[in-house]
Amino acid sequence: METKLDYSTASLNDIVFETRNKAYGAYFLRKIYNKHVTIATFIAIAIFILFISAPLIANLLGGDEEEVVLQEERVVELTEPPALENKPPPPPPPDLPPPPPPVVSTVKFTPPVIKKDEEVRKEEKIPDQKELEDVVISTATVEGNTKEEVLTVVEAPSEVGEVVEDKIFTFVEQQPSFPGGESELNKFIKKNLKYPPAALRNGLEGLVVVQFVVNREGEISDVQVVKKLGGGTDEEAMRVVKMMPKFAPAKQNGRPVSFRYTLPVRFGLQ
Length: 270
Known about the structure:
Layout: H1 12-16, H2 26-31, H3 33-62, E1 106-108, E2 136-138, E3 168-169, H4 182-192, H5 197-202, E4 206-214, E5 220-227, H6 233-242, E6 250-252, E7 255-267
Parallel strand pairs: 1-2, 3-7
Antiparallel strand pairs: 4-5, 4-7, 6-7
Main location: membrane
Subcellular location: Cell inner membrane
Membrane topology: Single-pass membrane protein
């Protein structure tokens, strides 16, 4: 008679395999599972301990001797440098004597003395006029060096003309100035400047920047607007600038030069 399973004391494997064959197969493997896990755990712990203690064991087995690596030291002996020879400096070359002056051809010519015919010698013959050309009269006849070249010294001109530059400067030692100064310039602009009707209708007000060149004579040229406002204000500012009299020119190094002048002209509604 088959015994009845007591569920209160039976294991999970007994309950699962209650109606199955327990002789072999899964039941046997599940039954020894815990045993295998326990054995594997102890093996893993042993391997881990062995791995950690391996360096310590190696030191204990190897002893305290350590291999000493000897480094070879090379000694380099430095010898004293050879003494420098104090040789005296070579003597300066001798001064060359100046070339001798050219020898001028001379012809002996002495005042004539009245003598008898037998007392007159051949070497006392009086030279004719052609022989006295291009020579110097002297007490003896000397053959000169007539082929030597004569150097002619040409004097340089004592005065150098003033160098005139056409460069237009933007930075100078002394800027150009309106006759009477800056206050007179402002009065001139205020007196001659007229508000354009188009700018009045549109309510335009602001600044117009005009540039022009003041040349070496103080004359105004190359008038142009670099900052525009519109409404006829640019043209009006240029018109007033072109009406200006001559400026005192700019100076650089004490001489007048051309200068690019920048003038702001303000238009404002009162």
